[in-house]
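Q: Please design a sequence for this.
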């Protein structure tokens, strides 16, 4: 799958810690950590919406498709 998660990049741009993002979104640290590491297999739209709202960004800022990445 060629989906890249850029949550860490967006958090750095907004100077936001994982703890702060967790507090703003009411999403557990463990779930956000898995998301940030790109180890997720699926994401709920409500989760993506909460993260985008907290970071004031678009879903495309967090998720990116690259055709040249192979399945692991």
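A: Design:
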């Amino acid at each position: 799958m060629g989906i890249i998660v850029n949550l860490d990049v967006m958090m750095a741009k907004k100077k936001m810690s994982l703890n702060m993002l967790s507090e703003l979104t009411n999403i557990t640290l463990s779930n956000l950590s898995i998301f940030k590491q790109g180890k997720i297999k699926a994401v709920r739209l409500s989760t993506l919406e909460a993260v985008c709202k907290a970071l004031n960004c678009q879903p495309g800022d967090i998720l990116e498709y690259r055709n040249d990445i192979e399945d692991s």
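Q: Thanks. Anything notable?
A: Helices lie at 7-13, 18-25, 29-36, 45-55, 59-62. The radius of gyration is 12 Å.
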